[in-house]
């Protein structure tokens, strides 16, 4: 039987990171997943746009799972609405951004594979 070398933790990062009106709370960090995945909760208030320009990631995929509200993602020029119970995988290198055009706050779960970013 293989011996485990680290303790298991629930929500290792309780820090909420604010980027303007956005809130990001990491739930799983790379150190906890041996670098395989980083997972964070994203909250976007109603009628808010991503302040940063469209961007891409060359070193990881970003998968979005809608929990509350509808977030409009623009991926390589195509608009895609992601609502509760829906998921979108943004491939490496795809230029993307998001906006909340609705009157409801959005909450989404985001997974970064591999865990190339974290709260640090």
List keywords for this structure.
120 residues
What does this structure look like?
The chain is mainly β and 120 residues long. Helices cover 0% and strands 43% of the residues. It starts with 15 loop residues before the first strand and ends in a 7-residue tail after the last strand. 19% of the residues are buried.
Share of residues in helices:
under 10%
Helix/strand order, N-terminal first: EEEEEEEEE
Structural class by SSE content: mainly beta
Query: What are the low-pLDDT stretches, counting only 5+ consecutive residues below 50?
Result: none
> How many whole angstroms does the radius of gyration measure?
15 Å
Total helical elements: 0
Q: What coarse outline follows from CA principal-axis ratios?
A: globular
Portion in strands:
35-45%
Assembly annotation? single chain
Q: Give the strand line-up of the largest sheet.
A: 1-2-3-9-4-7
Biggest sheet features: 6 strands, antiparallel
What is the residue-mean pLDDT, rounded to a whole number? 89
C-alpha end-to-end distance: 34 Å
- Report the count of strand segments: 9
Summarize the structure.
The chain contains no helices and nine strands.
Which helices and strands, and how do they pair?
Layout lengths: L15 E4 L2 E7 L9 E7 L16 E8 L2 E5 L2 E5 L4 E4 L5 E4 L6 E8 L7
Antiparallel strand pairs: 1-2, 2-3, 3-9, 4-7, 4-9, 5-6, 5-8
